[in-house]
Prior knowledge:
Blueprint: H1 3-20, E1 24-29, E2 33-36, E3 43-52, E4 64-70, E5 73-84, E6 87-100, E7 103-107, H2 117-123, H3 140-156, E8 160-163, E9 167-170, E10 174-181, E11 188-198, E12 201-214, H4 216-227, H5 229-254
Parallel strand pairs: 2-12, 7-8
Antiparallel strand pairs: 1-3, 3-10, 4-7, 4-11, 5-6, 9-10, 11-12
Helix pairs in contact: 4-5
Amino acid sequence: MSRRTASLALAALSLLLVAAAKPVLVPDISSRSVEIRYSFTGAQLLLFGAILYPRGRAPERPADIVVVLRGPVEPIVIREKQKIAGIWMNADSNRFRSAPSFYAVASSRPINALVDERTAAIYELGLQNLQLSPGSGALPEKERRFEAGLLDLRRRQGLYAEYPNGVEISQGVLYRATISIPSQVPVGTYTAETFLVDRGRVLAAATREIEIDKTGFERFVALAARRHAFIYGLISVILSLGLGYVAGVLFRRRF
């Protein structure tokens, strides 16, 4: 064996030993897909898993867990209403190039007790650390005002949520968290990210994907609206006119 080959073998062995010295996350989800039907009123998604420590032994001071469930990103325009001449109307707006359609974070302790602001911003842990990418080139004060408005709006819709003590850890090894899925949740591919945090550092991370989609007649309508927008709009107008005409005829006959 040449010296170069021996050096490469030693380097590979060193990397394996270093990797083996770090804990590993083994996450899973109660359901890899969520089907939205006409009767869908929301769901509870269970995210659970185990922490594999080196030599199979948990430390005396167990690490913390943060779980983030994130929906597909999308552009969004936020409009601000003001009362002008006694009438509420849209007075200003701001556009965001990419904002998560859904975001929920659960942690074994509050985020600010686990990591510093820089680490939280890097991994986007917490609503205040989301990278919303404003696209209008507005002044910083205006951007902050509209970011706060977006977070408040989606929090009230149930699309953004934080669970500061939402992760349970058993014996320092097993963990579980429950996240609520609202009835108006957007469809698409979601990512469930799990982070192992100890003394302000992220030691390990793992990702799983979840599909949320419509089924049955709801899926047919959604696909028709997306693939044949003009025909879908035309049929909607015709149906509205037809229902209005029938309602008018019935109203005249009755009275």
